[in-house]
Amino acid sequence: MSVQTALFDAPGPRARRRHAILTVIGVVIAVGVLWVVIRKMGSANQLEGYMWSPFVTDPEVWTQYLLPGLWATLKAAALSVVLAGIFGIVFGMGRLSHLRAVRWVSGGVVEFFRSVPVLLMMIFFFFGWFSRADWMPNDLAPLAGVVLALTLYNGSVIAELVRSGVYSLPSGQAEAGLSIGLSPGQTLRSIQLPQALTAMLPALVGQLVVVLKDTALGTIILYPELLTSARTLGSAYANTVPAYIVVAVIFIVINYALTRLARFVEQWLTSRGHTAGPVTTTAPMLVEGPAEPGGVLGEESRLVGGRVQA
Amino acid sequence: MGEILSEYDVLGAFWVTIQLSVLSAIGSLLIGTVMAVLRVSPVAVLRLIGTSYVNIVRNTPLTLLMAFSVLGLSFILGLQLSDQATTNSYWWAVIMLSIYHGAFVCEALRSGVNTIPPGQAEAARAMGLTFGQSLSQVLLPQAFRGAIAPLGSTLIALIKNTTVAAVILGTAEAAGQLAEITENEGASLPTFFLFALGFVILTLPLGILFTNLSQRLSVKR
């Protein structure tokens, strides 16, 4: 509520009257929009019982279409997140290395995959390689395309997370490690990384939402995920609009739950206070600036690999 | 390489990407601003409308919105934006990109408002500025400066996400074009890098510009 106290005075009698009028207007607009949507759907016969009843009465809707689709979506998302985590830690450490060549190569890789649209990678990997490779079983090719593209993109985001997490630790952490005789690499691995990884846990959970949403791109390269099952379900039961709405609700519920989980982890970490740095809630953005919620790239704390950057 | 460039309309595809980006950037800025005003308003119902919009749109895949716009809204509910199928898809792509990124613009603007310490508003009030004066002289300039970086990130994400319009636009747009070239000519790394380079050229200068702007205009605290 700090926003409200910063922007507005406590309402007096006239402001309260104005708020009451605005409340009525808001309710009228919201109800009006809903009414238009429902009327439009009604006049296109989208509210008939037979369109919606299969979701309750026919178990095949779930066993044949939605659940396999959901399973494929979750499988691709889980695989991508695990692989992206490994990719991210390796290249994040690479960007923090004290060897200039390693730093540059990892930096180039991370920046490249972060700026190319995921869909371009997916299309190229699938149509270009996996769908025509002899060693790749046909039914695995789309999954491989989805997972590889999502791994490269989200892995690069996680690499940036690792880097900004280490940067936002107080420099005393690395100084303490170096002064007790640890090498720069040991300091990074045993002192800075564990704290950075803990602090970025909420941001990692938040990134899961991005991965889950992006698996829907798999429908373009014929991966049978949830969106694809919405389409096949819609043509099998002639209820395209209800099928899409149900699938959208599934996505919204899962992603909203993940967002709440991220907030819960953030509160838990903040109250536990096991890291010296701030807890990171969102992935670092492409444009760095003051309102960036993810990375606190303080100029003072860039002590990495025994090298203090001003 | 030269063959591919002469046989396929790569530049045309990127021109569509640029058009989609500009039109939906304007659209999402409009939607996002309205929603941000609702989300920081002192009226609970308006806040609820803004919050619901952001939570629903942000958690739905853009691919789903795109597919639904043409398969559901256009074909079944009969919301045709044009008699021509390609023009219809084009405008639906713009609308869906605007709706989707509007939610992110709203959050960017709100995070700009959130960078203002409450002391600023209190100081403005203590000096005797009216609500309108404190808003226009003290609060909004700071909120706008704070929102530059997240707005820039949203714009770059929007440019990359125009590729999702391939779901309904097909080869008219960069990702669809790459799909067709790759399917016909086989995998060629140079072609992929050409398309990747196209997006780097579109996004990199914007990234540098916005980073620069946000640092130059950042409020010293």
3D architecture notes:
The complex is a heterodimer of chains A (310) and B (221). Chain A has 13 helices and 2 strands, in the order αααααααααααααββ. By secondary structure, chain A is an all-alpha fold. In chain A, strands 1-2 form a two-stranded antiparallel sheet. In chain A, strand 1 and strand 2 form a beta hairpin. Chain A is flat, with a radius of gyration of 25 Å. Mean pLDDT of chain A is 86; it is low at 290-310. Chain B is mostly helical and 221 residues long. Chain B has one domain (2-217): MetI-like fold (Orthogonal Bundle), CATH 1.10.3720. Helices cover 81% and strands 0% of the residues of chain B. Chain B has helices at residues 2-7, 10-40, 44-58, 62-74, 85-114, 118-126, 131-161, 166-169, 174-185, 189-217. The longest helix of chain B has 31 residues, at 10-40. Chain B is flat, with a radius of gyration of 21 Å. Chain B starts with a helix and ends with a helix. The interface between A and B is large, with 65 and 82 residues.
Give the SSE map.
The complex is a heterodimer of chains A (310) and B (221).
Chain A (H helix, E strand, L loop, with lengths): L1 H6 L5 H31 L5 H4 L1 H4 L1 H37 L4 H16 L2 H12 L11 H27 L3 H9 L4 H16 L1 H14 L11 H12 L2 H33 L30 E2 L2 E2 L2
Antiparallel strand pairs in A: 1-2
Helix pairs in contact in A: 5-6, 5-8, 5-12, 6-8, 7-8, 8-10, 8-11, 9-10, 11-13, 12-13
Chain B lengths: L1 H6 L2 H31 L3 H15 L3 H13 L10 H30 L3 H9 L4 H31 L4 H4 L4 H12 L3 H29 L4
Helix pairs in contact in B: 2-3, 2-5, 3-5, 4-5, 5-7, 6-7, 7-10
Number of domains of chain B: 1
CATH homologous superfamily title of the domain at 60-273 in chain A: MetI-like
Number of helical runs of chain A? 13
Helix content of chain A: over 70%
Helix-strand string of chain B? HHHHHHHHHH
Q: Briefly note the CATH topology name of chain B.
A: MetI-like fold
Strand segment count of chain B: 0
Helix share bin of chain B? over 70%
Biggest sheet of chain A, in brief? 2 strands, antiparallel
Query: How much of the sequence of chain B is in beta strands?
Result: under 5%
Shape of chain B: flat
CATH topology of the domain at 60-273 in chain A: MetI-like fold
Rounded Rg of chain B: 21 Å
How many angstroms does the end-to-end distance of chain A come to? 37 Å
Which architecture of the domain at 60-273 in chain A would the CATH scheme give at its second level?
A: Orthogonal Bundle
CATH superfamily of chain B: MetI-like
Instruction: Please give the order of strands in the largest beta sheet of chain A.
Output: 1-2
